[in-house]
Design a protein that fits this description.
The protein is built from 4 helices and 8 strands; from the N terminus they run βαββββαβαβαβ. It is about 20% helix and about 25% strand.
Amino acid sequence: MRAADEALIVIDVQNDFCPGGALAVAGGDEIVDGINALMPQFGTIILTQDWHPAGHSSFASSHEGSEPFSVVQMPYGPQVLWPDHCLQGREGAEFHPDLSDSTAQAIIRKGFNPDVDSYSAFFENDHVTPTGLEGYLRSRGISKVTIVGLALDFCVNFSAVDGANLGFSVAVDVGLCRAIDMDGSLDAALAGMGDAGVQLNG
């Protein structure tokens, strides 16, 4: 068992990010068994869940004439336009059926603001609006987090960098993540996490 001040954060291991899903990450289901095996080592486990309303502003379908994976400028900066995914209450938003979610103490739902996307477990994409995760961790006396999940170059990356910038000791188990790797996004994410002081394992 890890020390009481350490937590495991499992990012977005949901049906839509696994093979067959609306925004599938290649090999996304391959990490589930490894995450399950890691969970008993931690006394605190937090899951995050993408939780979008229909017509979310990050969906390409919400922007006439736009294609998925194109980029537009939002008031908070550049935003990739995604296929519709992880719609609230739909099967695609549910956790992968083999993920052991029953031991989690908290579930952080993100992306439910229709006007702002949310990659990070800590902040929406405006980098200002908190999800509540920081306060939860601090109230539990947690100073170290290990992050796993999907996708390494987006939600895992943003979560790890934000956590490090907030003063947490952050490790990412790269072997228990999978990436989209769009236009060099994986290499950029790995470099950015390293620059932020994130420990990359696996």
